[in-house]
Amino acid sequence: MLPGERIAFDPIAGRRRLELPDGKRVAVWIIVNIEEWNPLETMPRTVLTPPAGGAPMPDIPNWAWHEYGNRVGFWRILDVFDDYRLPGNLAVNGCAIAAYPQIAEAAHSRGWEFIGHGFSQKNMQKVADEVEDIRLTTEAIQRFTGTRPRGWLGPGLTETWETPERLVAEGYDYVADWVLDDQPVVLKTRNGPLANVPYTQECNDVAMMLIQHHKASEYRDRAIDQFEQIRSDARHGARVMAMVLHPYIMGAPHRLRYFREAVAHIAGCPDAVFMTGSAILDWAKAQQG
């Protein structure tokens, strides 16, 4: 199905008003992406190119750059979640649960929601068998947490033409790949409806730091500006805001403080409530009917 066949154009201005509990106006969810990069394959992203270019194998500098995030950066980020008692969302490669069990346990013990993020960090259009990839990811999360995941985030937001159908067939309730709204929406699939919970490409450290090459403070500035605009919009009905982190990026020592400062601003606003993706979905479904 083409995108326009899955979801009809529906401007936010004419919709039924949504209300969050306790008079809140903005539901904020923070997604931490945990990935395992295979040293036998080309690195998903790079910070350093070798002399004279090329694609070295092994690519130790870029593999290690990412590995630092899981060894060190994640734990800095976790301190912010603990200090502000925030609910977390772990978008995790299925293989990363076994590779980084201490991270998985830290998230699980705090009640974070686990979201399927592909079995490995690879474009879903390039995996050998997408159905098997989704199944393996689901089983890895269920085996570790005891609960089947409800949400899915494609690696790099990638999907095939059949991904939504395959997610519904595997029992998923929502996806976050369709960054096109500030409220949860419903996608049509041949296997039944699939919700989409608002994600972000703007308040996302990959886009800001690796693609747009902004200074570290841009994360704080953009998160606060985005929150304040969405908060203003929410006078017409509740909205959702996402913040996206990768430990190898925002967990770097020169960047972490700006994530903390953004959280401090939002947490200090009485109109904000931090939630998990599933909690946002359940709230929206109850409101939207």
Text of the CATH class: Alpha Beta
How many beta strands in the DSSP annotation? Answer: 9
- Overall helicity: 25-40%
Strand proportion, as a percent range, falls in 5-15%
CATH fold annotation:
TIM Barrel
Largest sheet: 5 strands, parallel
Task: Name the CATH architecture.
Answer: Alpha-Beta Barrel
- Count of distinct structural domains: 1
**Terminal Cα span:** 25 Å
Per CATH, the superfamily is Glycoside hydrolase/deacetylase
Mean pLDDT: 97
Mind sketching the topology for me?
Elements lengths: L2 H4 L19 E9 L25 H25 L4 E4 L1 H6 L1 H9 L3 E4 L13 H16 L5 E2 L10 H7 L4 E2 L9 E3 L6 E3 L8 H7 L5 H17 L5 E7 L10 H12 L4 E3 L2 H12 L1
Parallel strand pairs: 1-2, 1-8, 1-9, 2-3, 4-5, 5-7
Antiparallel strand pairs: 6-7
Helix pairs in contact: 2-9, 8-9
